[in-house]
Amino acid sequence: MVNAQIRKLAGFGVLFALLVVSVGAYTRLADAGLGCPDWPGCYGFLTVPDQVDELNVATQRYPDAPVEFVKAWWEMGHRYIAGALLLLVFGILVMAYRGREREDTPVKLASVLMFVILCQAAFGAWTVTLKLWPQVVTGHLLGGFTTLSLIWLLFLRQGGFSDVVSALPKPSLLAKTAFVAVVLQIALGGWVSSNYAALACYDFPSCDGTYTPEINLQQGFNFLQSVGPNYLGGLMTNEARMAIHWVHRIGAVIVLLVVGGLVWQMVRQVAVVGYLLLAALLTQITLGILNVVWVLPLLNATAHNTVGALLLLVLVTINFAPRLRIVQPSG
Known about the structure:
- The protein is mainly α.
- Helices cover 68% and strands 0% of the residues.
């Protein structure tokens, strides 16, 4: 009974984590990452200040950061749902610990998940206190994807989609390569976003009308860059941003080829997984192209982030689900 409850909580947690990832992406893309200049509150309040006396206090505390209600609420909304997800994971850990005498109770996985989400909370705080430092913003993105993946594995381990999981073969070298390629591409996407490089090339498939753009790889991928007073809007030259953008496009081609090969392999082994992988891959590539063609509309860019998470979940399933000690569904 305990494991059935954990499965249900984990299933809800997957949806909730996907919401956190999507809202976080929208918040970042809407330049609302500093909608509240402090953490964990907002101008020292638990909610966005909206009364005259609260606004006066906020102005005194942060004279260089005037209150922008929409951006502040997106930032606080993201924090609220992330906090709720942390509580949900804590509930899973408590249930797993209480049933630890049973071999099929996921104490270790739940503990790792709790540790990761606590680290993710720290990265969320550093994102604000370090004023959107790209290394921290990208790490925060990867932490969100890791949290989502671990909750998904927990759901699968407790018997979620057991018929599909039981049919999966041992992961091939191609499957492992596709997983690594997608993780690296997600990291590149985070670096593109955190350095405001999404529109460094204004056309597609060329970059500013050429296939050999003048780029600055050294500056674009300088991971030891200083924090600076505030990274909102970015500090790099256009050549550096163009380098990041162009490398991300090259990465997309590699992902298309590698994951496309895996699609062919999976369709012949477990058709439903193969077709899901194909749908996620094609949708993700299309959304990436439309980001450039449509000049980065917020909803499309957010969907690009969300579908990237779904693509990762399919690859996580292919690579890690066959290694789990699956609990047979009950209750």
